[in-house]
Design brief:
Elements lengths: L5 H27 L4 H20 L3 H19 L6 H23 L7 H12 L24 E8 L10 H11 L1 E8 L17 E7 L4 H6 L8 E7 H13 L14 H22 L14
Antiparallel strand pairs: 1-3, 1-4, 2-3
Helix pairs in contact: 1-2, 1-4, 2-3, 3-4, 3-5, 4-5
Length: about 300
């Protein structure tokens, strides 16, 4: 089946234009009030959203540019750099260039002239140290959804038609990995049929994992903003997820002792191959040998 991605790409570019406008308005707010934490967070989310969507659709130039842009914004959010007129000026020029990069990607044209130079300017601003200027206040208090809650339990269950709609769950996992460190990655194989019944255009796997890093709940959820109608996603702080599991066990749900062991993907594939060979062996054993069939005697 040939999948038409045009409608999804069009939706991405429409939303990217909105994010680019939000990025520009947020930077203008920072230019007026450099210590405005809310404006800085808004700018970062806009850049991150464009980067995430561009990766999903394989828009390499957009992804490369927004990656460097986001890296500078992340240093501002983390306090390694301070918002100064010089930094704001670089970011505003980068926003103008981002508009051209998006337009070129939408038209299928080469990257605009000046993109590489602008990326170099953004990288140089990252390495410029911490110039004197008003500091942006860090986010207050460790609350749910804050950067202080740095470990998240994520469950991703794609719908069976995800692949048919031109989306790739592995790109989502890579986007999560870009936010921090992935661990305890466990595939859900409950919907995986036998090899003979596999349909290559259907998605059967799900995943649960732990994401650790200086990342907020909003950033984690933004990874899935373009697949909300084709995936079931849950995001919870690890402490809350652990407590929910304990509550479930207290309520009579199967505990850890009754759950199957967490195998690596390699062991799971090997086990499935062994099972397939065993099934083939049983089928062969049930089929009589050619010499066992009674031979019909023909007489003239």
């Amino acid at each position: 089946m040939k999948i038409d991605l045009a409608q999804f790409r069009a939706a991405f570019f429409e939303e990217a234009i909105e994010h680019q406008a939000a990025l520009e308005s947020g930077l203008l707010a920072l230019e007026r009030e450099p210590a405005d934490r809310e404006a800085l967070d808004r700018v970062f989310r806009a850049a991150h959203s464009i980067k995430g969507g561009s990766g999903t659709f394989g828009l390499t130039d957009v992804a490369r540019f927004t990656h460097v842009l986001e890296a500078l914004l992340d240093r501002l959010r983390g306090g390694q750099l301070q918002v100064t007129p010089a930094v704001t000026e670089v970011l505003l020029r980068a926003t103008d260039m981002l508009r051209e990069v998006l337009a070129a990607a939408r038209a299928g044209a080469p990257a605009p002239e000046g993109m590489e130079a602008m990326m170099a300017a953004l990288a140089e601003a990252q390495q410029a140290g911490a110039p004197t200027g008003p500091a942006v206040a860090p986010a207050a208090g460790p609350v749910a959804g804050d950067r202080a809650a740095s470990s998240w339990r994520v469950s991703l269950v794609p719908h069976v038609d995800l692949l048919q709609r031109g989306q790739d769950p592995l790109l989502l996992l890579r986007e999560l990995e870009a936010l921090g460190t992935l661990s305890e990655v466990v595939p859900d194989l409950t919907a995986l049929p036998a090899l003979a019944h596999l349909d290559p255009e259907r998605c059967y796997l799900g995943w649960s994992l732990r994401l650790t890093g200086e990342v907020s709940e909003a950033q984690v959820r933004e990874v899935f903003q373009f697949v909300e109608d084709t995936c079931d996603v849950t995001v919870a702080p690890v402490a809350a997820a652990t407590q929910a599991a304990k509550d479930g066990r207290a309520g009579g749900r199967p505990g850890a002792a009754s759950r199957p062991p967490r195998w690596s993907a390699g062991r799971l594939i090997a086990a499935r191959a062994t099972a397939a060979r065993a099934t083939a062996g049983r089928a062969a054993a049930l089929k009589p040998a050619r010499s066992a069939w009674p031979r019909r005697r023909w007489t003239s």
